[in-house]
Write a structure and sequence with these properties.
DUF397; 4-stranded antiparallel β-sheet; alpha+beta; globular; 23% helix; DUF397 domain-containing protein
C-alpha cells in the first residue's frame, strides 16, 4: 500500500459520531478500499492536512471493535 495515494478524487464521509459544533470531526473515504485496499482518514477541520492511511482490513477490525464496545476512550 502506497503512502502517496492521490486523494483528490476521494469522497469524504463525516463520522456519524462527529458533533455538529466543529469539534471531533473525523472523515473517511470508502472510495479507495476496492482499488487500493486502503481507507484514508482525516480531520475535517483540516481537509488539506495529512490523512492517515489504514488498510481496509485494519479499518474493518477497528470499526467492529467500536461497535462491540470493546474500545472506550477515557
Amino acid at each position: 500500500m502506497s503512502a502517496d495515494l492521490d486523494l483528490t478524487a476521494a469522497r469524504w464521509v463525516r463520522s456519524s459520531y462527529s458533533d455538529g459544533s466543529g469539534g471531533q470531526c473525523v472523515e473517511f473515504s470508502r472510495t479507495f478500499a476496492q482499488t487500493h485496499g486502503a481507507i484514508p482518514v482525516r480531520d475535517s477541520k483540516h481537509p488539506d492536512g495529512p490523512a492517515l492511511i489504514v488498510s481496509a482490513t485494519g479499518w474493518s477490525l477497528f470499526i467492529s471493535t467500536l461497535i462491540r464496545g470493546e474500545f472506550r476512550a477515557t
